[in-house]
Amino acid sequence: MPTNYKHETIVNADVESTFDWFEHEGSFRRLMPPWEVAEEVRADDSLEVGSQRVFRFPAPGAPFFKMTWVAEHTGYEKPADNKAYFADTMVKGPFWKWNHDHFLTEVDGVTTVVDDVTYSVPFGPLGMLVDKALGGSLVTGRISSMFKAREYRLKRDMDNHIKFKHIDRKKILIAGSSGLIGTQLVAFLDTGNHDVWRLVRKKSDPSKKEISWYPSEGKINPSEIEGFDIVIHLGGVGIGDKRWSKKRKAAIRDSRVDSTTLLSDTLANLNSKPDLFMVASAIGYYGNRGEDIVDENTSIGDDYLTDICGKWEKSADSARSAGIRTIHTRTGIVISAVGGALGKMLLPAKMGGGGPIGGGKQFMSWISMDDQIYSMYHLMMSEETEGAYNLTAPNPVRQKEFAKTLGKVLRRPAFAPLPGFMMKIMFGEMGVKLTLDSQRVIPKRLQETGYKFTHENLGPALQDSLGKWR
To answer: Which residues contact 156 (CB under 8 A, 6 or more apart)?
Structure first.
């Protein structure tokens, strides 16, 4: 027998704006639960009948086995008389049946979105019995968490878009669009009606709004990047992906400095220059600072990572000298369950192996993924902003507190210590710098611009990222 599930979301926007958010391809990525390691295969930029959205995701309990979900739209009514509607059905996927209706109704400028889902679990009555025996956690609990996450993302995205609704939409070019941050940034900007293009290191497909460049070879076609309002560079070889051999260190440096120099020099010589060049950086700029409170006025440190960050930021000087507003985003640990530092911590933490590393007194400066995206957007759209900004939450924590909070959210113990020398043995210099250095960084300049954080404290940020609300 099919099961019915309903979820209601209240959005502080009119029905036309809310429906338009759903109609963009990026909404598909933004609505994906932040703890799901999902691969987007195809997403038609439409909700009209016959359009499809396809993605792959790891099977529950068998992460190496990928399952495919194909959703086809079956109903579509554009906003009229303060109402709108669209529907989709699963034509391929893990359920025996999945029909999803979306009802949008506006009253006094506020839109109510009702998700009405009818589904049948695999194996029919037997599947229902198993789900009930587990207290509904196998299927119903996952669905409930998914829609709660969707609610938060929709409301927050709409609130942040509305802040700058009065400003003309931008034509934006992004390098590093397939990375952890870039994937979410592209999706968010797309849902805000911006014209988003990707700078890719492969043969481009203009129909997908791609432009090719080959920074390791110093190749880029200036004529193809004329006329963009904003250019954002997020690319670079992963710092924490492998041990730091001499070759790896060179790759980390060159992938940032050389590519930024190429892009900066090219932008500086365009006839139609962008208004903004935003370049990723990192709080590694400050080095190991112990107990000191660090803000953007703090001097650069003196080690391998600080040297890279310093050269990375200086490599944008030609764009700055050409009169292009230039911003460096010094990002901390981005809270994401599907990658980065937290992604590496999850497995041992879930097994009860989380705990203090090297005593745990070192400070960790973090930022939620939503705040990472929203703060970048805030800086992009605030024309008076320029220079370096720390993208970190206002409340950094010691590593032992981070481990304790993560364990509490996961309902797992977090007391197993890991001596600092073990990090040196297991990961070499990379492990020491990324886990034992202390950086108590605050976002002074960002807060002075009026930015309000979605997640000021670690607990709620982890709960949202992992879908573990109490």
So the answer is: 370, 374, 454
Topology of the domain comprising 3-163: Alpha-D-Glucose-1,6-Bisphosphate; Chain A, domain 4 (3.30.530)
* Domain 171-466: CATH architecture, name and number where available: 3-Layer(aba) Sandwich (3.40)
List the structure tokens of 269.
């010589």
143 to 57, 90, 452, 462: CA distances (angstroms): 15, 15, 30, 19
Largest CA distance in the chain: 69
pLDDT in tens, 367-380: 999 999 999 999 99
Closest C-alpha to 432, from 444, 420, 440: 420
Instruction: Encode pLDDT of 18-63 as tens digits.
Output: 999 999 999 999 999 999 888 888 888 789 999 999 998 887 666 6
Beta carbons within 10 angstroms of residue 378's beta carbon: 20
> Which residues, 6+ apart, have CB-to-CB distance to 335 below 8 Å?
342, 366, 367, 368, 369, 455, 458, 461, 462, 465
- DSSP class of residue 357 equals B
Q: Which residue has the higher pLDDT, 206 or 319?
A: 319
Residues forming a β-bridge with 4: 118
Per-residue pLDDT tens for 338-370? Answer: 988 888 888 888 887 778 888 899 999 999 999
Q: Which two tokens stand for residue 370?
A: 């939503």
Which residue type occupies 233? H
Distance of CA 375 to the CA centre of its chain: 12
**Alpha helix segments (H runs only) across 351-385:** 369-381
- The pTM for the full model equals 0.93
Report the alpha-carbon distance of residue 365 to residue 335 in Å, rounded.
Answer: 10
Please state the φ and ψ torsions of residue 21, each to the nearest 5 degrees.
Answer: -60, -45
DSSP run (H or E) holding 6: strand 3-11
d(CA 163, CA 205): 33
Domain boundaries, the chain: 3-163, 171-466
In terms of Cα–Cα distance, which of 57, 27, 59 is closest to 41?
57
